[in-house]
């Protein structure tokens, strides 16, 4: 008889699975029910959870708030930054950006759109969006025939140079909105708004493309921490 006896391995630490918190909540306490009943009474986490969806929506919403701190910082973040949070897919990040953009548009009635009479008017709108960014952002402001602002759209994010900026992308928002003109702006994370040679070269290419597309390029602003520079006023890239 063989005396060999196999060892029986006992698992002294059985694996446990934690159910998502959504599964533990009564229906009346779940974010979707609360938003449907009274969205104004909901917390930021609950509102975000409904947009995020899925079984781990509550945990993901809380991770988002822990990562960014405020809803304003989530709105300012790039889609790729939002998608880095655990549980947030690229599609979910896009939904969040769209939902927050809709909220901003709700606060801007069509008949009260800002009119851009000067570079200073545009800078007043764009400084809060761009001045404190730690990376470089380029935005486009399409304008109607009365120089009323139609929107502000982020086009690029990261290190900008003339070789990576596709001029056609800058005009796409204007063509989609039948805009008569555009104003370009980007920030310098160094806080010094002095235009670089690359800024001037990009501006020159944008102005030439605008002439071909019959869309006026009103200006290109460079935003620093507390100052801004108008390339048109300086005659840089517009001659």
UniProtKB/TrEMBL annotation:
User: Does ATP-binding show up as a keyword for this record?
Assistant: no
Tell me which Pfam families the record gives. Answer: HHH_5 (PF14520), RadC (PF04002)
Q: Quick one: a GO biological-process term for this protein?
A: proteolysis
Q: Where is the MPN domain?
A: 115-237
Task: Fetch the InterPro entries from UniProt.
Answer: MPN (IPR037518), RadC_JAB (IPR025657), RuvA_2-like (IPR010994), UPF0758 (IPR001405)
Q: Which UniProt keywords apply?
A: Hydrolase, Metal-binding, Metalloprotease, Protease, Zinc
Select a single GO molecular function from the record's annotations and give it. Answer: metallopeptidase activity
Q: Which family does it belong to?
A: Belongs to the UPF0758 family.
Tell me the protein's name: DNA replication and repair protein RadC
Q: Which organism is it from?
A: Flexilinea flocculi
């Amino acid at each position: 008889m063989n005396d060999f006896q196999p060892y029986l391995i006992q698992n002294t630490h059985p694996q446990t699975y934690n159910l998502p918190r959504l599964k533990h909540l009564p229906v009346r306490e779940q974010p979707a029910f609360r938003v449907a009943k009274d969205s104004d009474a909901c917390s930021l986490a609950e509102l975000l959870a409904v947009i995020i969806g899925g079984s781990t929506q509550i945990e993901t919403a809380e991770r988002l708030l822990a990562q960014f701190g405020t809803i304003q910082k989530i709105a300012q973040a790039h889609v790729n930054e939002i998608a880095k949070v655990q549980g947030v897919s690229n599609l979910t990040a896009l939904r969040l950006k769209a939902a927050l953009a809709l909220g901003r548009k709700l606060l801007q009635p069509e008949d009260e759109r800002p009119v851009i009479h000067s570079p200073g008017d545009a800078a007043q709108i764009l400084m809060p969006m761009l001045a404190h960014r730690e990376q470089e952002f380029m935005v486009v402001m399409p304008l109607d025939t009365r120089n009323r602002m139609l929107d502000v759209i982020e086009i690029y994010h990261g290190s900008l140079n003339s070789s990576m900026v596709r001029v056609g992308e800058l005009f796409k928002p204007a063509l989609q909105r039948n805009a008569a003109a555009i104003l370009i702006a980007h920030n310098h994370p160094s806080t010094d708004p002095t235009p670089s040679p690359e800024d001037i070269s990009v501006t020159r290419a944008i102005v030439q493309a605008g002439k071909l597309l019959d869309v006026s390029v009103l200006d290109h602003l460079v935003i620093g921490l507390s100052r801004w520079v108008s390339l048109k006023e300086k005659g840089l890239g517009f001659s």
